[in-house]
Amino acid sequence: MNRSICIAALAAAAFGAFGIAKANAAPSIEFQDFYLSYRYLPDNEAPGYHGSTPENAINLSYANAWTYGSNFFSLDFEQFNLGDASQTIAPQSNLGSSEFYGVFRTTLSGNKISGTSDFAIGPFSDIGFQLGADYDVQNDSFASYKRLVVAGPEFDVALPKGFWSISPQVSHEWDTNGFAYPEGPRDSFAVTYEIETAWLYPFNIGPVPLQFTGFANLIGPKGRGYSEPAGFSGDFYHKTEILFHPKLMLDAGSLIGYTPGKLMVGVGYEWWMNKFGSYKPYVEGTQQSSVFFEVGYHFD
Question: For residue 45, which of 235, 296, 272 has the smallest C-alpha distance?
Fold first, then answer.
């Protein structure tokens, strides 16, 4: 059996188990939030090249809670300056490269579907099941065309306010490598593990309202992908990848008499070890460390 079927089988089993629960009300949206933001990160790294280049990004995200669980959707539109060679797919270009990255996660809540608090266990307020997918395309020389599917349980940590979710998952990634395969075949990596966590904790320092929020991903070794073309030895095995993206956001609107929880400004830090699974000393540009700045607005 193809190993990628494991994810579908796991998902089907979870949906089947949840499906035996009785629904007493029609599904409805309990909460929703649209967030539009701009982010500036001065030191983006590109695997395969030494040096960094600025990144400008527009993000549109949507989150909701509904009768049986929650959903999250994020779209990043990123522009990289012409600061490293990987971003010059056309020699005559002076614009750098652009990237589109989409993320979707949907979670079924054990407590909501069962209509009980049986899934509130120990430090967890709820245990559910999460499915998700990533989609990425970039017009640089690497020519990324990433597709990722994930599935696994989600554990919601009990907090007095805000949220903290932890999701150990099975993941399978497909991608391209324009350096290794200029003719365009796809990399199909090995099924591996992935641990995702996201959090938001609001607090005040005196009269100043703040939010500590962000996400982190740990992705296990995913193998080699396709066999290398004859004479090419650049597609090395991949190592564990870690992406850590925390930020401290200020509710600026409430300080100027505007509606609280709308206008946000802040600073964050992005640390990315073994970016895309590549690693030194074989590949340069795989260790990213940069402060970033963000301004955003929440729409109901």
Answer: 272
In the chain, the domains with their CATH numbers are 32-299 (2.40.230.20)
The DSSP-derived string for 221-283 is: -----SPPPTT---------EEEEEEEEEEEHHHHTTSPTTSEEEEEEEEEEESGGG--TTTS
Report pTM.
0.85
Alpha helices in the chain (DSSP H): 5-18, 110-114, 252-255
- Altogether, the residues listed in the chain come to a count of 300
Scored b (16 or more CB within 10 A) or e, 273-290 reads: bbbbbbbeeebbbbebeb
pLDDT digits (tens, 9 = 90+) for 65-99: 999 999 999 999 999 876 544 554 444 455 678 88
Query: For residue 80, what are the CA distances in angstroms to 41, 90, 99, 154, 192?
Result: 10, 14, 8, 34, 30
Distance CA 109, CA 119 (A): 9
Residue 168 has pLDDT above 90, yes or no: yes
